[in-house]
Fold each of these.
Amino acid sequence: MNRERTLLLIEDEAANRTAVKRALRDSGLNFLEAEHGQQALEILADRPVDLILLDLAMPVMDGFAFLERFRALEANHPIPVCVMTAWSDNATR
């Protein structure tokens, strides 16, 4: 039995979460949402996901701190992470 593919969207701005879900509405993905990295780690402890879309600038735990903690969790290594950010400086990229 195949389970539905799930995307974890980690983004603090509700309008941005809505825009991403609208852009991917025909993808057949199930969406889980987190407003910051700590909330995302809590979701990952309970739910399997197939892909993570990650904002970098967030309150509580930003994307960089999330990635550090996420990578330390051995079981999560096969989950692809796509980083999205409005930051345009080369150091951040």
Amino acid sequence: MLSGTAPWAYGVTKMGAQLSLMHYLARELGAARIRVNCVETSWMPGPLVQGYMDYMAGQQGRTAVDVIADIAKDWPIPDMPLDEDVAESFAFLLSDRARMITGQTIRVNAGEYLA
């Protein structure tokens, strides 16, 4: 059963709002050749994720590297994306090579979510 103020509600409404805004702006600004896209990421190294990995490693008697490897093991590319990977997708979307791409979500997630 779902509770009234569960954390999932924030995530669902936030993502839904972001996608709706992207689609709206892509339609509104397209005639002016302004492109609007989203870059969606997966697990990524950083303070919050590292803190979680350290916590889980302590709970399981393993290393944080082992916990990360376990999380990513079933992904098509079994590794977490880095900041540089996300930056490359932005660089592409900002380039003339992406001149006809608008209203799209680019997933930089090592294939964690295939849809």
Amino acid sequence: MELLKEYLDLTVFSLLGLMGFITLWITIERLLTFKQIKLSEYHNEETLNIELTRNLTMLSIIGANAPFVGLLGTVLGILITFFEVGQTQSIDTASIMTGLALALKATAAGIAIAIPAIMSYNGLLRKVEVINALYSVETKKSQ
């Protein structure tokens, strides 16, 4: 239990930090890619769509799962708190409340990562729709 107590925050926040970094990296990479897209280089809509949607699934996965990573950290933090209370066999309200409050920070961090990931995903998906529409218009003009 001491090992879990010692490394819980480090593990949960490292994982959430990695998820946040990946979210930022994918968002920047996709925005730069969208600026450099030349519709005339694509001969069919499927090839264009594959290029446009690359890595967007990862953003969706991060947005959907970051709260669960935070929640897992919270549950384990609560477990540690209750274990320690059980070991001391005394009910110290201050230590219980402090343990629970510290455990909840993992859920807050998970939500803080999920919100920008989902916002980024939705914004990039909208940009994909716009580029696909422009491709359709350009294709019809050239026919």
Amino acid sequence: MKRIITALFGIAIISLVACSGNSNPEATTEQIVEQKEVIVDVTVEQFKTLLVEEGGTILDVRTPDEWAEGTIANAQKIDFYSDNFAADVEQLDKQSPVFVYCKKGGRSASAAEILKEKGFKKVYNLDGGISAWIDAGNETVK
């Protein structure tokens, strides 16, 4: 019984660490840009500021039904669930930052890993996804 409890406790700790992300709401955009990690989770405000300062591609990895509800302006849309997702992202500029988001942050985190594997230099993952974007009072376009 002790082994089972210990194993479950270990799994719970690993899950918490794995899902905690690496966002730092207090980090300046300069500190974020200087991070050596390819993938950086960012808050809505950091996402917006970095987009203005760094430029790059906004990538919405939600489904077509979700896109119909509204997207961040100028976002390129590539459905994460599409069989062609990996091939479609190959068309993006790997040297330019990619600002990726989904509804809540799960798919975009997975998409960010694929982008990293494909050699993209910097990927900013919107922590909380478009839901956080909207909750912060930002507009979407249809």
